[in-house]
Design brief:
By secondary structure, this protein is of the alpha/beta class. The protein has three domains: about 190 residues, FAD/NAD(P)-binding domain, CATH 3.50.50.60; about 90 residues, no CATH class; about 120 residues, Protoporphyrinogen oxidase, mitochondrial, domain 2 (Polyamine Oxidase, Chain A, domain 2). A hairpin with a 2-residue loop joins β8 and β9. The longest helix has 26 residues.
């Protein structure tokens, strides 16, 4: 029986990342609608996939499995339960609600030696600046004061005080947002250069909305409060009342984030739905204000087929989606074509050992491996933005535990000099950068691998200021549901993307509106609400 021979309704889902796969599984759980997933890549997971390079696994960006949504936390743990023994190593994991907490149920704990499990990880992220390590988020402790020096620390404190007395209003830009929360001195020291390295434009050109979504309520005051809570040992293991940027404990699949989505894909397939890899949407048909069919190209054979659908759930980048839809409003086409993105490159680097930075020697292993999950590199004389230590995400990410497996992250654009380098030259370039800042000796490099991720980060500047006009057009198409990071041109974490999928499925099943989809991660408050809905 072909796709269009079935009497059941069909929902075509474009993309097999966290949003698309969550939508597919929830449709199967909540309805008799058949999801049909088309994924252009050769594997599922989107930017949350895991790359396996000669037995060493790469996480594209570092994916903490933590959410303030109870629904998301339960969803993850049902797919991959917590590994047996993790509770004894890290203390009991509690889920708190309105001051009460509960221990994970026995059903959430895996038994036996299966690899299909979650590990509980302690977060350690630091800033590398002036060839020194600073706590991230910045802590008002002796180490930070020692690295800065008393004079500089006083200047930062004075600057923060001035910012509180003369707050910038309205907060039009990310620069306004950051100065209001940290003061000009700290902004210039730790935020400005790194943010501009990531986005390639001045902070004054980036919308304050980016700060509201990614940094949320974090400020010097929140950092101080967090430090005091730690001092008095008020440990809320579920961290439900902790700012997202201050989370210190999270779950992580044993074989990397892609393991979660590979398991979800397996369950979808086991229930009779289809996930077609290396299939790209090539056209969209409309009639009477609805999507009626899509054209899909099989990238292995070049064949194109037409698939009739009752619903269309899209994680396609908005700029590409609008090209397929061809709105009569030429301004919508123009805005969408100019929506900015930031591309991403990451180098997996296998090492025998690393060099020790003086103040970190007591925390490192014998081979010099630092204890961090990732390190923000804010040095202005190199272009690397962040450094992951895959060993510390999960030991199973590394084929040989005596080696160090790093991920060197670069933010770039498709037309710049970084993206244009060939793979071998870029690996050499990355090695030279780590040598330059004193973290490695080139002779300790064993192997390297480069991965490119186009349109990794939807950006909040330029034509994004007119995005509401595009959104209004998309909302007019009754059975079209843009979800996820690229589908909504919103810098979502994977849990946000999952929540947009959940909301889209609720809208389809309940024949309701789509307003709730756009509310997710739209401001400081929505995702911070305690979500106990099922």
């Amino acid at each position: 029986m072909g796709l269009n021979d079935s009497p059941k309704k069909i929902a075509v889902i474009a993309g097999a990342g966290p949003a698309g796969l969550t939508a597919a599984l929830e449709l199967l759980r909540q309805s008799d609608i058949t999801p049909v997933v088309f994924e252009a890549d050769a594997q599922v997971g989107g930017i949350s996939k895991t790359i396996n390079y000669r037995g060493n696994r790469m996480d594209l960006g570092g994916h903490r499995f933590f959410s303030k949504s109870d629904w998301v936390m339960r969803w993850w743990q049902e797919i991959l339960p917590l590994a047996q023994g993790e509770l004894h190593q890290s203390g009991p994991l509690q889920i708190s609600y309105q001051g009460e907490s509960r221990i994970l149920t026995p059903d959430s704990i895996a038994h036996g030696n299966s690899d299909a499990v979650m590990l509980m990880r302690r977060r350690l992220s630091r800033i590398f600046y002036r060839r020194k390590f600073f706590d991230y988020p910045l802590s008002l402790n002796a180490s930070t004061l020692g690295n800065l020096g008393i004079t500089e620390a006083l200047k930062i404190g004075t600057s923060y005080g001035k910012a509180q007395l003369r707050r910038r209003s309205p907060e039009s830009s990310l620069e306004d947002f950051l100065i209001n929360r940290f003061g000009d001195r700290l902004y210039q020291t730790f935020f400005k250069g790194y943010t501009e390295k990531v986005w390639g434009v001045a902070c004054s050109e980036i919308s304050a909305e980016w700060g509201a979504q990614r940094i949320k309520g974090l400020s010097i005051g929140k950092a101080l409060s967090h430090t005091l809570r730690k001092f008095f040992n008020r440990d809320d293991a579920a961290q439900r009342y902790t700012e997202t940027s201050l989370i210190e404990r999270f779950l992580y699949p044993k074989l990397g984030p892609g393991q979660m989505w590979e398991e979800v894909a397996r369950r979808i397939s086991d229930q009779g739905a289809h996930i077609h890899l290396r299939h790209r949407i090539a056209g969209i048909e409309q009639a009477a204000g609805k999507v009626t069919a899509v054209s899909v190209i099989d990238q292995n054979t070049g064949l194109i087929r037409r698939v009739v659908c009752d619903h269309f759930i899209s994680t396609i980048p908005v700029s590409e989606l609008i090209t397929f839809l061809q709105p009569t409003d030429l301004q919508v086409q123009k805005i969408a074509s100019r929506l900015p993105y930031r591309d991403f490159m990451t180098v997996g680097l296998l090492l025998r050992r690393m060099k020790s930075v003086a103040e970190a020697r007591d925390k490192r292993q014998a081979n010099g491996m630092p204890p961090d999950n990732w390190i923000y590199v804010q040095e202005t004389d190199v272009r690397i933005g962040r450094l992951q230590v895959f060993n510390n995400w999960s030991p199973a990410m590394v084929a040989d535990p005596s080696t160090i497996w790093l991920g060197l992250e670069y933010f770039c654009s498709k037309d710049d000099d970084l993206w244009s380098m060939n793979d071998a030259s870029f690996v050499d370039f990355a090695v030279a950068e780590l040598e330059k800042i004193g973290l490695i000796n080139p002779e300790d490099v064993i192997d390297g691998n480069l991965v490119r991720v186009p349109k990794a980060y939807p950006a909040y500047f330029g034509a994004y200021g007119e995005f509401d006009r595009v959104k209004a057009y998309l909302d007019q198409i009754g059975n079209l549901y843009p979800i996820g990071r690229n589908g909504m041109h919103r810098y979502n974490n994977q849990d946000h993307s999952m929540l947009t999928a959940k909301s889209a499925v609720n809208s389809i099943v309940n024949h309701s509106g789509k307003e709730d989809i756009w509310r997710i991660n739209a401001d400081d408050e929505y995702h911070e609400q305690l979500d106990t809905t099922s």
